[in-house]
């Protein structure tokens, strides 16, 4: 992982702000998340978290199922990363290899929130399998660029260290 500096950081801020705009569209009751996937200075995929097909009838978070789900699966929503990956694969399949995925959350006022450690193994596996090269989060210390393979390993580590 690398904390970005200088022009790379300025470019990343631009894409994080784009991801934040996507997050403002989120329909999730628990968190407003947004993602953009970028290749060669162009957004090739974007997504926000919401119930499948953005339909209220697909929402299940207001129902009690009585079984413990892992942190990344405690929502009925499609993750912003999943939607962005599917969008890129549908509209720009030739560009997804070697791309960068920018993920963020916003609060209810639309203000960008800093990210914690990588934790969603489904998102990390999908990004890895799709050919996304870098996964970028904005931590308290700055904007951090992860190699997607490293992000995947760290996501599994998070799951294991938090089961204790």
UniProtKB/TrEMBL annotation:
InterPro entries: CMP_dCMP_dom, Cytidine_deaminase-like. Coiled coil: none annotated. Pfam families: dCMP_cyt_deam_1. Residues 10-159 form the CMP/dCMP-type deaminase domain. One of its GO terms (molecular function) is catalytic activity. It comes from the Bacteria. This is CMP/dCMP-type deaminase domain-containing protein. It comes from Candidatus Yanofskybacteria bacterium GW2011_GWA2_44_9.
């Amino acid at each position: 992982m690398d904390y970005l500096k200088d022009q790379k950081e300025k470019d990343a801020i631009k894409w994080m702000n784009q991801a934040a705009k996507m997050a403002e569209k989120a329909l999730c009751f628990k968190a407003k998340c947004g993602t953009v996937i970028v290749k060669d200075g162009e957004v090739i995929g974007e997504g926000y978290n919401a119930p499948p097909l953005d339909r209220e009838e697909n929402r299940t978070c207001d129902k009690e199922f009585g079984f413990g789900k892992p942190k990344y699966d405690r929502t009925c929503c499609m993750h912003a990363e999943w939607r962005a990956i599917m969008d890129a694969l549908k509209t720009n399949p030739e560009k997804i290899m070697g791309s960068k995925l920018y993920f963020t959350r916003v609060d209810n006022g639309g203000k960008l929130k800093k990210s914690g450690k990588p934790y969603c193994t489904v998102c990390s596996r999908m990004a890895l399998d799709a050919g996304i090269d870098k996964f970028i989060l904005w931590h308290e210390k700055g904007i951090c660029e992860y190699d997607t393979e490293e992000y995947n390993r760290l996501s599994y580590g998070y799951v294991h260290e938090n089961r204790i």
